């Protein structure tokens, strides 16, 4: 049969906290109950998420996850980011909840994606629908670009920010004058984002300062503009 719908059912420590967070992202509560067990259902257009509350549940230990296939990763991220700014005054990049940035992922055939990690510790993995995807960009080349691609898989896909930091720090330690300065800025800004994820504000500040000091010509400045927009959000998160 066709037209079946699968809806993820995810755990959380508080349905109230989860509902408040997703409301900021543009979801509406379509059902809520406290008895016999706390349960809430949320909807944003064709996105449906259901949550059940567990006493003593630790979101940091959650394995809850689901995929969201979308024809436009960037547009959905912009909408979620706007909701976060309106509700929290900034895009949340550390702690719970938080959201990663859209990035091409080599473990997804180069398709873009980002993740929302909600108050229940669930990873809502938003990925480009391959059926509607444009031709992915060529695979990155060069030491810095390869390190960045590997770090994205480790941190954004697997949730291992610590190992991703080791990869980026090693690449930065070996950076040379001939490396692409735009990629160098991208690595610095992503390293700052991971530092915030790991509650290391000092390193985040240092990496953003290094990115700002990097000399770029007019063409490189244009290419790096999206990365500096990310840097601006990270700077706001540090305030």
UniProtKB/TrEMBL annotation:
It comes from the Bacteria. InterPro entries: Glyas_Bleomycin-R_OHBP_Dase. It comes from Catenuloplanes niger. This is VOC family protein. Gene3D superfamilies: 2,3-Dihydroxybiphenyl 1,2-Dioxygenase, domain 1.
